[in-house]
Write a structure and sequence with these properties.
alpha+beta, 2 domains, 3-stranded antiparallel sheet, two-stranded antiparallel ribbon, 5 strands, 27% helix, 16% strand, rod-shaped
Amino acid sequence: MSAELKPCPFCGSKPVMRERSGDERNGYNTSLELDCKCGASIETETQNNGGLPTETVASAKRRLTHSWNTRAALAPPEGYVLVPVEPTREMIDAYVAVDARFNSARHDWAVMIAARPEVP
């Protein structure tokens, strides 16, 4: 029994696995692709050696499922952090708690960023 596919890291939907049988154009490899409705996808092909299969389709499916399920967590580039689209109550409260009349926008932004929720 193969592992269950995890939901898409971008939209939370369940991905769909598509299989396309190989022919002479791709060395008789079977192509496999995991697609999500949001556009996220990964793909692979069965392994072969000179047209002779060295990997079963089931093995390639397990490999693709493992790659999807163990993908790296989303991480922003250095110097960036993930924030909610709308400020949370905690972020607003942190901003209100400082006397913004005497601070720079940079300072006020830093206060709100420090109060952001952790990414789940």
